[in-house]
Structure formats: structure tokens, C-alpha cells
Amino acid sequence: MGKLKGKADQVKGKTKEEVGSMTDDESMEMKGKAQKVKGRVEESAADAGTRMRRMGEKKR
């Protein structure tokens, strides 16, 4: 679920960033960039969790 939410945050952030850029709304643009970063972090954390579970399964 974390990976999917991370991707969704990245898409939402990109949209906010683009709208902010087109409307010269720096606040919205920065919020969009921050949301994209949050999405990347969440996606990376989900990937790391999956890798750790797989490593644990291999040791059994």
C-alpha cells in the first residue's frame, strides 16, 4: 500500500507544481515539490520493507 500511496503523492505533487508554475503561485509550486519528495520517500520505504521481508524469507 505504501508504494501505491507514494506514487499517488508524486502525481498529485507534480500536478500542484505545474499549476503553481502556470499561475505564478510559488506557494503551490513549493507544496507540489514537497509532496513529490514525500511520495518518493514513501515509495522508497515501501521498497526497502519489501526487500527486508524477502531477505528474511530467504534465511528460513
From TrEMBL:
Pfam families listed in its UniProt record: CsbD
Domain CsbD-like intervals: 3-49
Residue ranges of the region described as Disordered: 1-60
Bias (Basic residues) ranges: 51-60
Record InterPro entries: CsbD (IPR008462), YjbJ_sf (IPR036629)
Superkingdom, taxonomy of origin: Bacteria
Gene3D superfamilies linked to this entry: YjbJ
Family label: Belongs to the UPF0337 (CsbD) family.
The protein's name: CsbD family protein
